[in-house]
């Protein structure tokens, strides 16, 4: 069968940099940090006391106060982002004739961690009869696409991808496949996460994965820097509206970019550490190039996974060199996490949104806090501030625990 072309017609974001796309994108280009001391719980006994928090977000702008009180924070992000997405795509609502052919496929790594913590405490203190009937429904990760589909009346494919930090890009890959294969005409996709909780911070601290730069949190996320000491946890949501080219053109949509290639692989190596030679990451990137029918010299920008952990940044740099050879030194690379922290299951969604914005706005975001480059991280990481550039193709990477890797290529739309 002939695969259908898949284009992007809408974007939305809620991030530590802002409560909508415009604010988030503006601060990203300005090189501002959204990392700050944690305010949602007592951090006095925690090794890490800061995170990339979404601040000033009012869920009642998108749902009733009653619904907002019942839902976990990641669910309110998902609903809000899905509504902003339709607006950005020029749709007041999904037309009735399109509802059965529109789906929601959203990545989420952990789901409702806060309600899990609260419910376990209540169970131990007050007994099983005091457990809320909303505990399970709002805890499970598939409520991100589930509630979005209810709000939008999207009756097509409905699915969550849970693959740790690669969840968002995996969601985009499979949403792309649904349209390319003719199972849907439109897909709401991306990633969401909100796990800045006592358990979340304690768990990653126990793994020694988080930065403990408590005296200078805004400079704690330092991808590719010699003095990086771990990632910074973030929260938020990034969504894209995908459509078949025919459907988008038929409704006169504003096409922002096209998905031309994607791939996922496994390291088959370790629970949490990437294979140090970057083999799995390199195969994900090479597979995305192969499905796009592109040669490595056609990629003009890379939005890196770039977590600011000692092992990941070196490994990703090695993988990029494996794929692009000497030309790796000529490709501008950005690390969005330097400003937002790591949004876990939401990272690939938000970073894909920013990748498309780079194509549409002809500007590449900077990487901040890279002051003393790791000798093994010697590529062009855009450290001088935002860079004006008209690029045709952007590669976006996400890699996660369990050795899961995902890459997607977005191309400029030329009409």
From TrEMBL:
Matching SUPFAM superfamilies: Thiolase-like
Role description: Involved in the type II fatty acid elongation cycle. Catalyzes the elongation of a wide range of acyl-ACP by the addition of two carbons from malonyl-ACP to an acyl acceptor. Can efficiently catalyze the conversion of palmitoleoyl-ACP (cis-hexadec-9-enoyl-ACP) to cis-vaccenoyl-ACP (cis-octadec-11-enoyl-ACP), an essential step in the thermal regulation of fatty acid composition.
Gene Ontology biological process terms from the UniProt entry: fatty acid biosynthetic process
UniProt keywords, alphabetically: Acyltransferase, Fatty acid biosynthesis, Fatty acid metabolism, Lipid biosynthesis, Lipid metabolism, Transferase
UniProt pathway annotation: Lipid metabolism; fatty acid biosynthesis
Protein name: 3-oxoacyl-[acyl-carrier-protein] synthase 2
Enzyme class: transferase
Similarity section: Belongs to the thiolase-like superfamily. Beta-ketoacyl-ACP synthases family.
GO cellular component: cytosol
Active site annotation, chain numbering: 165
PROSITE patterns to which the protein is assigned, alphabetical: KS3_1, KS3_2
